[in-house]
Amino acid sequence: QKEVEQNSGPLSVPEGAIASLNCTYSDRGSQSFFWYRQYSGKSPELIMFIYSNGDKEDGRFTAQLNKASQYVSLLIRDSQPSDSATYLCAVPSSTGNQFYFGTGTSLTVIP
Amino acid sequence: EAQVTQNPRYLITVTGKKLTVTCSQNMNHEYMSWYRQDPGLGLRQIYYSMNVEVTDKGDVPEGYKVSRKEKRNFPLILESPSPNQTSLYFCASSSQPHSNQPQHFGDGTRLSIL
């Protein structure tokens, strides 16, 4: 079982729609959860992090965490073509030493 | 400007010729890490360092070495590169001496081993 799993997609949504990206993790003791965006050929850039159960909103982005279900999601509202990228879910180990990434979900926003 | 700098950005070399990819950060970060990214496999951690002189293996350490003699630098060494080490490599750092903080990534190094 992989430490972090994501649907690889591709996920296509029309401009202005809500894109929903999902991630599950295996280490029940993990305390923090990160979403990175990666454009083709570029380095990952942090867009959201969440530590507590529930929702965290930042502009058009909302991260949702359910520790009981070991599930974290990212919602992108009013999707724009510039949101077209691969989204990586990242979860540190419960020991805080290692960092695990999902394989990423490719999102395409269609104008 | 706060940044993580990797060099070189691109390198084509041959099997068995030792190479070093440098990584330097100017944010006084404690934690540093190396990843490789391959299609379909995502980012996988090679080595990480919690602080100066403290390094440990990640998930895919075979064929790599690292050192952390100074806080700002964390070079990745391939003593005898092989074609299966052809990949896109990223160095990253974070402020605290553990991984529960967001990581800042360098621009990446694309290595081709022929």
Characteristics:
heterodimer, A: 111 residues, mainly beta, 6-stranded mixed sheet, 5-stranded antiparallel sheet, 11 strands, 54% strand, B: 114 residues, 4-stranded antiparallel sheet, globular
Tell me what you see in this structure:
The complex is a heterodimer of chains A (111) and B (114). Chain A is mainly β. Chain A has strands spanning 4-6, 11-14, 19-25, 33-38, 45-50, 54-58, 61-66, 71-76, 85-92, 99-101, 105-110. In chain A, strands 2, 4, 5, 9, 10 and 11 form a 6-stranded mixed beta sheet that branches. In chain A, strands 1-3-8-7-6 form a 5-stranded antiparallel beta sheet, with no helix packed on it. In chain A, strand 6 and strand 7 (61-66) form a beta hairpin. With 114 residues, chain B is mainly beta. Helices cover 0% and strands 50% of the residues of chain B. Chain B is built from no helices and 11 strands. Chain B has strands at residues 4-7, 10-13, 19-25, 31-38, 42-51, 54-57, 65-66, 76-78, 87-94, 104-105, 109-113. In chain B, strand 5 (42-51) and strand 6 (54-57) form a beta hairpin. The model of chain B has no long low-confidence stretch (mean pLDDT 94). The A-B interface holds A 8, 31-32, 34, 42-46, 49, 88, 90, 92-93, 96-104 and B 33, 35, 40-45, 48, 50, 56, 58-59, 90, 98-108.
The first-to-last residue Cα distance of chain B is 36 Å
What is the mean predicted local confidence, pLDDT of chain A? 93
Instruction: Report low-confidence residues of chain A grouped into runs of 5 or more.
Output: none
Radius of gyration of chain A: 13 Å
The rounded distance between the terminal residues' Cα atoms of chain A is 37 Å
What percent of the residues of chain A sit in helical stretches (DSSP H or I)? under 10%
Beta fraction of chain B? over 45%
Strand content of chain A: over 45%
What is the global morphology of chain B?
globular
Low-confidence runs of at least 5 consecutive residues of chain B? none
